[in-house]
Design a protein that fits this description.
Layout (H helix, E strand, L loop, with lengths): L1 E7 L5 E7 L11 H20 L4 E6 L4 E6 L5 H21 L4 E7 L1
Parallel strand pairs: 1-5
Antiparallel strand pairs: 1-2, 2-4, 3-4
Helix pairs in contact: 1-2
Keywords: Hydrolase, Protease
Protein name: Ribosomal-processing cysteine protease Prp
């Protein structure tokens, strides 16, 4: 199962997320749930990196499926929009495939 935690600040802005695990919907290389989550998460990070000048912290571990991302100080509204879009996509995957494969948790920071 992929466990995703979305961190929201007191201004209701999503500023960080933590993903870990593998969906195990299908065999490695054929797992469309894992692929869908990976594409959304990586595209969000790549878009912030390549299209915006916002700083961020990133830790990854391919074996465990860890992706730990947090915006640095002085982040833009564009980064917030990209993360909000990520959340919409992840909610769609969770709705389509169920909580046996993807769980989303929201935490205030």
């Amino acid at each position: 199962m992929i466990k995703i935690t979305i961190y929201e600040n007191s201004e209701q802005e999503y500023t960080a997320f933590h993903c870990i695990g593998h969906a195990e919907y299908a065999d490695a290389g054929e797992d469309i749930v894992c692929a869908a989550v990976s594409v959304l998460v990586l595209n969000t990070i790549n878009s912030i990196e390549m299209l915006l000048s916002d700083e961020f912290d990133l830790r990854t571990n391919q074996e465990s499926g860890l992706i730990d991302f947090s915006l640095g100080k002085g982040y833009s509204s564009e980064s917030l929009l990209l993360i909000r879009s990520l959340v919409l996509g992840l909610q769609g995957i969770q709705k389509s495939y169920g909580t046996d494969y993807v769980t989303l948790t929201f935490k205030e920071v």
